[in-house]
Write a structure and sequence with these properties.
Blueprint: H1 4-18, H2 25-56, H3 59-84, H4 89-112, H5 118-147, H6 152-178, H7 184-203, H8 219-231, H9 234-250, H10 257-264, H11 269-293, H12 299-317, H13 323-350, H14 357-385, H15 387-414, H16 431-435
Helix pairs in contact: 1-11, 2-3, 2-4, 2-5, 2-6, 2-7, 3-5, 3-8, 3-14, 4-5, 4-7, 5-14, 6-7, 6-11, 6-13, 9-14, 9-15, 10-11, 11-13, 12-13, 12-15, 14-15
Length: 437
């Protein structure tokens, strides 16, 4: 019989397992840098949506802002992946975070001087899209470098925890401050710029490590090598394609939170921030448990379940009768999103050679470029048929994509079509686990 002290020890052990990557000092510095960066970025996303809506009052304009962000990421991300495999990751992180800081500071000044225009939002979206194209691959690849493959799932999940933790309060904070007369959108941008500066200070404390592959090469040749690497790996190819569809359609619900809250439910901009925070509450709630299983044998099944739940809850959002039901559904969306994104990235990187990790991560991240690009036509669709039917289409496509991926994986397992050991380093401990999927 388990005693109370045994239970306490078991609970303490579980908590220790969940935060084991943070015991590594260098990763801890990276994590804090990400926390402040995500705080700034999440707040800026809300402010861009509010300002775009104030300036135009059109869903297609909201979609265009996200589309410009996505197009920039589409161009920058492959180059960022190649750069992460060739240049010191600390340098890349500092450069990308500087761009995020300048975007916040520049928009803050423009709003305070009363010269803000829609085109400035597009410029800001370009700057952040370029920054994300570099920051994402470099950050994940550096996490793998700092914690090792055995803890990579835990490190990625904790990184997602910092992102989603800021989403609990950053959107509500940004929306709330933007609605306060003596603060407004301009000074809120300034506050977010200060958060970006705090991220820069933390990232500057990271160790300077030379890249594993610093041999000068044509970056486009390196990108092509990464694409060929994924193309000849059926397991990676299936994962990348399904992730693209799930993120491009399912995750686009965030593009339309403002019209959902203000037009359909009739609430103000503070509630826009609260709705954005609702998904983060669900994400944080699931992250603690997820961090303990992300490197375990059931990670793939959990990823499939999370992805399907993600799509179905986006579908459910289209039927929400009131804002309170929408809050509850959005919390479930956040839990599904976190499980799917964390584990799909872990699965991709734990079966990837060290010298290809930046490029593979950049290819996975291109799904977010697709998300931004798809926002524009989805915005036009929402204007044509209504927002609720559009959300239903988005969620259905995401759920179906996960089902088709699961069917393809089962068929591949029967045909013994999984990981080619020749494509994975002998030091990788994960190919056997991937092959058993």
């Amino acid at each position: 019989m388990m005693t109370r002290s045994d239970k306490r020890r078991g609970g303490a052990s579980t908590r220790s397992e969940a935060f084991k990557s943070l015991e590594i000092p260098e990763y801890r510095v990276l994590w804090w840098g990400g926390l402040f960066s995500f705080l700034s970025v999440q707040g800026q996303m809300v402010l861009r949506a509010i300002l775009a809506w104030d300036l135009t009052e059109r869903e297609s304009a909201l979609g265009l802002v996200f589309a410009v962000f996505g197009l920039t990421m589409l161009i920058a991300t492959p180059l960022g992946g190649a750069a992460a495999d060739r240049f010191p990751k600390r340098t890349l992180l500092l450069l990308s975070q500087t761009a995020i800081f300048l975007a916040a500071a520049g928009m803050g000044v423009a709003v305070l001087l009363d010269i803000a225009a829609f085109w400035m939002l597009l410029v800001s979206a370009v700057m952040q899209g370029a920054a994300f194209g570099v920051l994402g691959p470099a950050r994940v690849a550096m996490s793998a470098e700092l914690v090792g493959r055995d803890q990579l799932g835990n490190a990625i999940t904790l990184s997602m925890l910092s992102m989603n933790g800021t989403r609990v309060f950053a959107p509500a904070m940004a929306g709330g401050l933007a609605g306060v007369a003596f603060v407004g959108i301009g000074w809120t941008y300034v506050i977010l710029a200060v958060a970006s500066a705090a991220s820069l200070w933390n990232l500057a404390r990271l160790p300077h490590k030379p890249a594993a592959n610093a041999e000068p090469r044509n970056p486009f040749s390196e990108i092509a090598d990464g694409v060929r690497y994924v193309a000849r790996r059926p397991d990676l190819r299936r994962l990348v394609v399904s992730s693209f569809v799930v993120i491009m359609f399912g995750f686009n619900y965030v593009s339309f939170i403002t019209p959902l809250v203000e037009d359909i439910f009739g609430y103000g901009r503070f509630w826009v921030g609260l709705m954005s925070s609702a998904s983060a509450v669900g994400a944080v709630a699931v992250s603690f448990k997820l961090a303990t299983v992300a490197d375990g044998p059931n990670a793939h099944k959990i990823m499939l379940g999370s992805g399907f739940a993600f799509g179905m809850t986006v579908l459910g959002l289209s039927f929400a009768p009131n804002i309170f039901a929408a809050f509850a559904i959005t919390m479930l969306i956040g839990a599904g999103t976190t499980g799917y994104m964390s584990l799909s990235n872990t699965l991709a990187l734990t079966t990837t050679r060290d010298d290809m990790q930046g490029r593979v991560q950049s290819i996975m991240q291109l799904a977010f470029a697709g998300f931004g690009l798809m926002a524009f036509p989805l915005g036009g669709l929402a204007e044509a048929i209504g927002l609720r039917p559009t959300l239903a289409v988005m969620g259905s496509i995401a759920a179906i994509a996960v089902v088709l991926y699961a069917a393809a994986e089962q068929r591949a397992a029967r045909n013994d079509d999984a990981v080619d050991p020749a494509d994975v380093q002998a030091t990788d401990a994960q190919p056997a686990k991937a092959a058993s999927i």
